[in-house]
Write a structure and sequence with these properties.
The chain is α+β, with helices and mostly antiparallel strands and 219 residues long. It contains four helices and 14 strands. The strands form three sheets. The protein has a seven-stranded mixed beta sheet, covered by helices on one side. Strands 11-8-10-13 form a four-stranded mixed beta sheet, with no helix packed on it.
Length: 219
């Protein structure tokens, strides 16, 4: 797990596209800070350079923040929503959710696969299937993982990687079942499709032959 990213929040006056655009032009990002102790939400702004580099290289839903509020109070936070421009991909607005130290929070943790190409199942002609790109869990704030690593080095064809085999934080309660597969090595789909087509073709021939026999018999 990486550390928490320090962010200093400032009060934000005014809302709307025009005001938000002015903030971004000045190097700030508009946001709302809310949570168990801040149910009404607090409009804030912070310097874009303090967070944007982390957004570019990380799964934003697991980014943890050490937040300094406008009144100087310290809080932990998690990104709960991130709005981007559909054309430019520019970050437009963020929702920051307060984390409480001893209270679990639900988060979607990305799955990262290593040693995929070298695994026995791939060498034997199998197809690697990632069934869950993220794994949802409830976990304490200080134990939120950056990702869940699947080492495919020993996976053979027909084998998979189950939830119970994942390295998880001690406090984590995963919403999937322990026997659920996160990834597996399956047979190539092309072979399955060829078999299905061959079976369908055989059935068509049987139907045609049956129809011909029925017609000849009637004649």
């Amino acid at each position: 797990m990486s550390g928490f990213i320090p962010i200093t929040l400032e009060s934000r006056e005014g809302i709307g596209k025009e005001k938000s655009g002015q903030l971004r032009a000045a190097g700030y990002l508009p946001a709302v800070f809310y949570g168990p102790d801040y149910k009404d939400g607090m409009p804030v702004r912070f310097q874009a350079k303090s967070l944007l580099p982390h957004l570019r290289k990380s799964h934003w839903e697991t980014l943890r923040l050490d937040v300094t509020l406008p009144d100087g109070k310290q809080e932990m936070a998690l990104l709960r929503d991130l709005q981007r421009d559909s054309i430019s991909d520019e970050v437009l607005h963020l929702d920051l959710y307060q984390l409480v130290r001893d209270r679990k929070v639900r988060v979607a943790v990305p799955v990262r696969v290593i040693n995929r190409e070298g695994c026995p199942g791939i060498k034997a002609g199998g197809v690697f299937e990632l069934l869950h790109r993220v794994v949802e869990m409830e976990v304490l704030p200080r134990e939120i993982p950056d990702d869940i690593v699947i080492d495919a080095a020993s996976l053979d064809k027909g084998k998979g990687f189950r939830v119970r085999e994942c390295a998880l934080p001690e406090s984590a309660e995963v919403l999937l079942g322990p026997e659920d597969f996160v990834a597996l090595i399956s047979e190539p789909r092309a072979e399955e499709e060829e078999e299905a087509e061959a079976t369908a073709g055989s059935m068509d021939v049987e139907v045609v032959q049956k129809g011909k026999k029925d017609k000849d018999g009637a004649a």
